[in-house]
Amino acid sequence: MRLSPIVPPASLALLAGLLAAPALAQDRPVMIPTRDVSVAYRVATEPPADLRMSWLVAEQKLRVDMPGGIGWSLVDQRTQKMSMVMEQQRLVMELPTGGAGGINLPTQPPDTARFTRAGTATVAGLGCTVWRYEDSATKGKGEACLTADGVMLRSTGTHQGKTGTLEATQVTYGPQDPARFQVPAGYQAMPVPGQPPAPGARPSR
């Protein structure tokens, strides 16, 4: 079975770069929503794809519903873990994060990123500040438009040679159901392709 990433590869790279705040910058955007919110995005792929990102602020969790209903992913900021859930197959994959070959979490800030203000805009009916960024380590650059309370409404740029754009089409503020931010119990663990299965994990069929 072929696995899709949390979002299209270029957009995942952008999320890692554009949602990351520089550790030492004095003028920087709020990068993580400060209240519960669910945002529908259009990703500029061929053909265009839609995904939804929802934040449960109290538990510092992000849920990403992938295009086409193929599954969803969960980022736990507290534990720095990412899980991919495939509902139809009842499978769950723990994705490696950080280090060589690992995924940079969208909530994980690289110290090498630098941001500068570049005006304002209106996206999905909300005002946002445009921030240009550049990461000297990865040679990534681009810009993101973020609200004052940390919601990313638009991002575009390159990161590690990958280019992509996503833009919010609908922003819904309101309490999120904590049950939607839990990996389902009883799902079969699946190893990451190219890596040995975790100890005690049942092999996939």
TrEMBL record:
Which Pfam families does the record cross-reference, listed alphabetically? DUF4412
UniProt KW keywords = Signal
Which residue numbers delimit the DUF4412 domain?
Answer: 47-149
Q: Tell me where on the tree of life, at the top rank, the source sits.
A: Bacteria
InterPro entries listed in its UniProt record: DUF4412
Specify the signal sequence span. Answer: 1-25
Full protein name: DUF4412 domain-containing protein
Organism of origin is: Paeniroseomonas aquatica
